[in-house]
């Protein structure tokens, strides 16, 4: 009888236990939500809510799946994975996230077997996606693990199975992109850090929607691969080749003539890459390397910023300097290149650009830079370079800021008269790596005397200046302040 009594009572006890757990869950949720909604006073005196407060249902349980997916897409990868423990509804929703950002900050480096664990996590994200498809994937793991072996599989799976729009991959090893990546018609933005991997471009490239292309440290296998890749992107707005390497057994020519291109950034130390620019709608132009050619008659009416750093090897330059023929050709070419940027608002010229322009100084005839407001220039402490700087300033009637940096190379003992002019708009001058040479002091005196609206002059000295030069420099600064009493001079 007692056994039957206990058997009959068991369902009743289970229902009571279940009701008790439900009430406890609701009460704990209400306490947590009420505590989060209350105003915070102090960490030591927190006012907990009263037990008579009205029960509040968790708001996240009542949200539609679309809103939950939007919330998840804005979180870091580690927080997206933690969302799976919030409720049964959120348990598998985290795998439907369309925007993923996997960086070194999410890497569990302090745990044993962290590399394998994180590798399996990324595989689950890529392969077992349950949503409409991954749209944005960023993987930046340059400091951890050997992920470059499996990143090729990730790229192939993403390009073949999902309508991905943005792909950004940077791991600590050479990466060779698969052929399927160059047939992904949904790609809009692509950035790959290849670490000098040999890039093989297939014969047919279908990147019809690509607008931004950035390749860092690529090495093209064939001379026409880079040009075929550029020509396939018909609506390209931004093109960046950083650390581009060529093959010494052939010359590689790049024709940049896309009418939609607005941002172009090319950085290379190779002597075998020749760049020909004819894109007329460029807004930002950055070039660091050699063998740059601007097409004949091309003007850039929408140009805002130009960074020109065409350098030379010092040993080769000294050898060619005895012959004078290559130096004159490079000087004429640089004169033509700088003249084509007359519509720029910001202009940067490296020390070698100034050196090439100084070689044709008696015949220099640059156009007026009517829109130029900021000029950054590197120069050697000689009068040839100082005159080139003053000539460009004289051709820029609306110039307001000047940044000059001194480099100690050669030809520092030249004494020639500096240009004399009056500039009405220049208000700010900053000189970096100031060595206190006679050319630099004369240049500062000439700038202060000719720029009537100058309000501030910043001079950053190098640390190796001797004491007599410092005394001479202080004397010059006192004389400069007498020329313009309202001028603020800062020396550091």
Automatic annotation (TrEMBL):
SUPFAM superfamilies, A to Z: F-box domain (SSF81383)
Gene3D superfamilies: Ribonuclease Inhibitor
Source taxon at top rank: Eukaryota
Domain F-box: 57-103
PROSITE patterns assigned: FBOX
PANTHER family in UniProt: F-BOX/RNI SUPERFAMILY PROTEIN-RELATED (PTHR31900), SUPERFAMILY PROTEIN, PUTATIVE-RELATED (PTHR31900:SF30)
Name by which UniProt lists this protein: F-box domain-containing protein
Natural source organism: Rhynchospora breviuscula
